[in-house]
Every structure is written in structure tokens, then in C-alpha cells.
Amino acid sequence: MDNLTARSHPLRASLSEEMHVRRLPRMSAPCRLLQVVTVLGETAASEARAHIEPIALKRGMNLPPHAKYAVIDLGSMTLVWERHTEFASYTLILHGPFGEPFATDTFDPLSSEIFANMPGEVIRATQIALYPLGTPVPDRATRDEWFDDEALILCEVLQGKALMMSDFRLHADGFGRLLVIDQGLARDEAAQLMARLQELGNYRNMALLGLPLAQRLSPDVSRLERRLAALTHAVSERVSRDDQLLDELTFLSAELARLIAETRYRMSATRAYSQISTERLHSLSVGAMTGYQTLADFTERRLMPAVRTCISFSDRLDDLSQRAAWTSALLRTRIDTALAMQNRDLLTSMNKRTQLQLRLQQTVEGLSVVAISYYLVALLGYVFGLISGVHHDIAMGASVPVVLLVVWLLVRRLRRHFIED
Fold it and tell me: Is the Cβ–Cβ distance between 95 and 31 less than 8 Å?
């Protein structure tokens, strides 16, 4: 059995530990929570750990290298710190009875120490008040003091084991407010409920970060769509030069690639965050209260249209990219066809010129045979004049066909030799 440990995968222990992190400590009503979530930039991810490490060391806790989660006992309260890919959350938990449910000074001075010089930008800040079993639902006057009645959300969660209310608005202190009444929570259910409610809100806000980007760049996508339609029409109608159309298509494709590179991560993150939000919402098992909108109504009515806008924006970019590629391929095919036809015509012209040169060469060869033969016959005439008993004119006349044949054979052999080389 000892061999099992020796043969463990290098990530076995860390993966096992990963399954137990990112959870709130066990809690029970009454208690209060205060959470702040900050969006981290590319460099702030390491700064988040550097910010929380001195706080942990001050309480005698050493964070492991590359820690992304920590539960720190602050004495009168507990701090839960989490670092995600692009955001970090700080949750203060104060156990025990409380008076005013949404007084931020209850967490001072520890909250001031923790939130001072916090890296990143605050994307969500929430106060949660968890009341014990048997607490009556606040009356209308109390609710109006804590929440905006026009935006009030009131519903049961976890199949009636708890009741929650909120208006999901930012109040004067910069925090949202969430009130939960225990109606039968047991063991870890309170902590699970708090975690799911906060994760639902956090991931919902992170998902909504893609909406302003999609809205800002949608006019650019519309402009590119109109321009691509015009270029496609020009390609089909042959109203412009192909090289000019190709230059414009190349520029449009470059603009499109810039938009995709600028938005791909945020749109993908929006889809992922919205899916997690939907999962958290389903896990809450929301039940309706007569006369009030539920948490599911609020989330679906606000989150889903924003997510669909982002999905539609991404789909438009993908469709535009595909159509631009098709138009470019069509234009390049036409250009390649035109070039092939030009090459064919050029080869035909070269073939004609080659045939003409061959004919001229053959003509020159024929003339050269005659000229060489003429001079050879003339040379033979001198030879015949020196030979006695030979009739000069008859000998020259008889030598003409022989000389022509010999010269023609020599020229032909020489040409064949050149061709073989």
C-alpha cells in the first residue's frame, strides 16, 4: 500500500484539495456577511495575494505558494478570501445576534484594514443579514426603510427552507442588501445558501461586463456588414477592378480580425459566467411568493437578454468572418482563372512565335545550303580547270546535285546533333 503514495500523480494532492476549497465556513443564524468583489487586471492577480498575505501573517497564518483561497480567523469575525481568474472576493462573516442588519460600521475597524489599498476595481459589494428560525417577515414600513419597494424581490429558496428579499440596488453606503430568514436550514445548508446567492450575483455581474462592449462595437459590425455586402455585389457584377476589390476585402478582413481579437475573451467569459449563474439559480430551487417577483424572474429578465445580445454579437462576428472568407475565396478564384487564361494566351502566342522562328530557321537553313553549295561548286570549278581531259562546264554541272546532297546531309546531321544535346 505504501507504493500508492510513491506512485501518486504530481497533481493528485492538489486536485484533492481543490475539491474542498472555495466554500464558506459553517455558519448558523443569526449572522451577518459583508462581501466585496474586485475585478483584477493582468498584473493585479499577483497583487491580490500580496495584499492578503500580510493580513494572514498578522494572524499567524502562512499562505501556501500560489494560494487562491484562504479562511482567516480575525477574532471577532472570519475573513474568506478567494482569487479567481479575473476577480477576487473578500467576505467578512460576523457570527451572533445583531441589531441594525445593514450598518457597515459593525465591521469596522477590521473592514477598513482589509479593504484599504485593495487591488482591482469593485464590481460588487453586498451586505447579507441572516435571521434565525422563527423571525417574522419584516412589515411594510421596515421593508420600505431597507429596500426600494418598486424593485423588491421576495421569494423562498432551497424548497422553502429559507426566505430571501432584496432590491438588488446600490444604496447610499455603496453596498447592495440581501436579507435571508432561516426557515429550516440544517448543518452546511446556511453556508451553501450564502455561497450560492453570492456566486449567483457575482457571476451575473461578471457576465454583464460583456454587454457594454457588445453595444459599443455593434455599430462597427453593422458598418462592416454593409461594406461586405457592397463588396460582394461588386464581385458578382464586375463593376470594379479585381485588385482594388481584393485590397478592400483584405482591409475589411483585418478590421474584422481586430474586432474578434478585442472581444473574443470577453464574449467567451460572458457565456461561461452566465452558464454558472444559471446553474446556481437552478440549485437554489426558488419558490414564488404571491404578489412579488422572484430571484429567478429578476435574473432571467435582466441577465438573459444581455447574454443573448453578447451571443448575437459573437455570432455576427463569426458569420461576418465566414462570409468575408467566402467572398475573398470567390474573388481569388476569379483572379486565378483570369491569370490562367492570360497564361494560356501567352503560351499560345509563344507557340506561334516559336513556329514562326522555326520556319524562318528552316528557310535560313535552306538558303545556307544553297549558298554553301554555290561556293563549294565554285571551288570545285577551280579543281576541274586544273585537271586535263575534263570538260570544265560538264564537270561543274554534274557536281551540283552531289554537292547539294552532301551539304544538306551535313546540315541535317548538325541540326540533329544540336537537338539531341
Answer: yes
| Closest C-alpha to 227, from 212, 249, 246, 207 | 249
Other C-beta atoms closer than 10 Å to the C-beta of 230 total 11
CA distance 64 to 403: 108
**From the CA atom positions of the chain, what is the Rg in Å?**
45
Half-sphere exposure (CA, 13 Å, Cβ side) for 142? 9
Q: What single-letter amino acid sits at 87?
A: F
How many Å apart are CA 294 and CA 306, to the nearest integer?
A: 19
DSSP of 266-293? HHHHHHHHHHHHHHHHHHT--EE-TTSB
- Residue 390 CA, chain-centre distance (Å), reads 104
CA gap 194, 199 in Å, rounded: 8
* CATH code linked to domain 210-343: 1.20.58
3-class SS of residue 65: coil
401 upstream amide cis, omega within 30 of 0:
no
67 closest CA partner among 18, 115, 19: 18
Distance, CA of 265 to CA of 210 (rounded, Å): 9
What residues have CB less than 8 Å from 137, skipping those under 6 apart? 163, 181
The SS3 of residue 141 is: helix
Phi, psi of 196 (to 5 degrees): -65, -40
Dist. CA 296–CA 300, nearest whole Å: 6
Question: Within 10 Å of residue 232's Cβ, how many Cβ atoms?
Answer: 18
Q: For CATH 1.20.58, list the domain ranges present in the chain.
A: 210-343
For residue 369, the surrounding DSSP H or E stretch is: helix 295-386
Write down the pTM of the prediction.
0.76
Ordered DSSP codes for 163-184: EEEE-----TTS-EEEEEEESS
Q: Per residue of the chain (421 residues), what is the pLDDT tens digit?
A: 456 666 677 666 666 655 555 678 888 889 999 999 999 876 666 788 888 888 888 888 888 777 788 898 888 889 999 988 889 999 999 998 988 899 888 888 888 888 888 888 999 999 999 999 988 988 889 888 999 988 899 999 999 999 999 999 999 888 999 999 999 998 889 999 999 999 999 999 999 999 999 999 999 999 999 998 988 888 877 766 777 888 888 888 899 999 999 999 999 999 999 999 999 999 999 999 888 889 998 888 888 999 999 999 999 999 999 998 888 888 787 777 777 888 888 888 888 888 888 787 777 777 777 777 777 777 777 777 777 666 767 777 777 787 777 777 877 777 777 777 6
